[in-house]
Every structure is written in C-alpha cells, then in structure tokens.
C-alpha cells in the first residue's frame, strides 16, 4: 500500500487529535500460520501540547501479563511524524493522508530469555463513528512473524 492512495478519504485522521484524552484498545496477535498467540486490552492516555503527543499506554494481556509503553510523537511538516518510546530502537516514522496513518518502527521485543529486534509496519484507518482499525505486519530478517490487529475506541469497555 501507498499512503497517498488514501488522500481525500474521510474522516480525516490526525493522531494528535484522535488520541487526545482517553482511548481504549483491543487487539490480537496471530503468527504467520494464522494461529492466535496473544490477546490484550489497553488503556491509553494521550496529551497533546501543540508540538508533542505523549501516549501513555497500559496493556493487560489475556495471560495476566501487563506492560506499559510511553510514546513521544512529534508532528512535522507534510503530515510527517517521528516518535520514540523506551523499547523502540531508534526513531519511529510515520505519515498521514486522508483517513490513514502509516507508522514504521523497530521494537526490542522480549522473547523468552532473549530480546529480538523486530520490524513493525502499522497501518491505521479512522472509520466513521470514531473507531480506528489497525493492521500491523511484524517481521524479522525480512520474514513475516505475524500480524497484529487492533481496534481503538474513545468509548471504554462496557460495564
């Protein structure tokens, strides 16, 4: 896919606007064979100061494991974004067009007793009604390890 193919698509997706305040997420990771490996929920607090979007993400996995990631994302010219987080190797880079946001980065991922540096190629699309759908290809050495599917909403979990 090319980000330009989404120009003109509505609703317009601006991460700094969408993720301002509280957002919830639900996701699954499937390996390259289509086997469901992990499920999670996340609560995200976003703060936009006019230059930097800070996302404080709290994950709870179905096996009880918890994780926190804090992103600092800066919007540049031409709808370009850069970001950092504690477990991100180097700098993440992204771009928006229309209702889409492509976000690429390397993550230092714990795997058993080891850590693997894996590549994430995120595609996020803002849908009418305020839901964001995300599909992420996770690769290492050019081989796909699996796919991450995430749904984001401004409405919290049902009681």
User: Which class best fits the helix and strand makeup?
Assistant: mainly beta
What is the topology, as strand order, of the major beta sheet? 1-2-3-4-5-6-7-8-9-10
What letter string, H or E per element, gives the SSE order? Answer: HEEEEEEEEEE
- Could you report the average pLDDT, rounded to the nearest whole number? 96
How far is it from the N-terminal to the C-terminal residue, by CA?
38 Å
Fraction of residues in H or I helices: under 10%
The outline comes out as globular
Strand fraction: over 45%
Main beta-sheet annotation: 10 strands, antiparallel, barrel
* CA gyration radius, whole angstroms: 15 Å
What is the count of β-strands? 10
Question: Can you count the helices?
Answer: 1
Detail the poorly predicted runs. Answer: none
Description:
By secondary structure, the protein is mostly beta strands. 3% of the residues lie in helices and 65% in strands. It contains one helix and ten strands; from the N terminus they run αββββββββββ. The protein has one helix spanning 15-18, and strands at residues 21-31, 36-48, 52-61, 66-75, 80-84, 88-97, 100-111, 114-126, 132-140, 143-153. The chain has a ten-stranded antiparallel β-barrel with strand order 1-2-3-4-5-6-7-8-9-10. β4 and β5 (80-84) form a beta hairpin. The radius of gyration is 15 Å and the shape is globular.
């Amino acid at each position: 896919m090319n980000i330009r193919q989404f120009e003109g698509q509505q609703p317009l997706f601006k991460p700094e606007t969408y993720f301002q305040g509280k957002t919830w997420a639900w996701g699954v990771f499937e390996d390259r064979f289509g086997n469901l490996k992990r499920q999670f929920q996340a609560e995200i607090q976003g703060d936009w100061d006019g230059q930097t979007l800070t996302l404080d993400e709290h994950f709870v996995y179905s096996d009880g494991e918890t994780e926190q990631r804090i992103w600092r994302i800066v919007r540049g010219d031409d709808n370009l974004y850069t970001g950092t987080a504690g477990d991100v190797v180097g700098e993440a880079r992204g771009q928006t067009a229309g209702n889409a946001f492509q976000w690429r980065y390397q993550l230092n991922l714990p795997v058993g007793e080891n850590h693997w540096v894996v590549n994430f190629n995120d595609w996020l699309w803002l849908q009418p009604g305020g839901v964001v759908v995300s599909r992420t290809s996770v690769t290492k050495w050019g081989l796909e390890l699996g796919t991450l599917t995430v749904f984001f909403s401004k409405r919290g979990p049902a009681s």
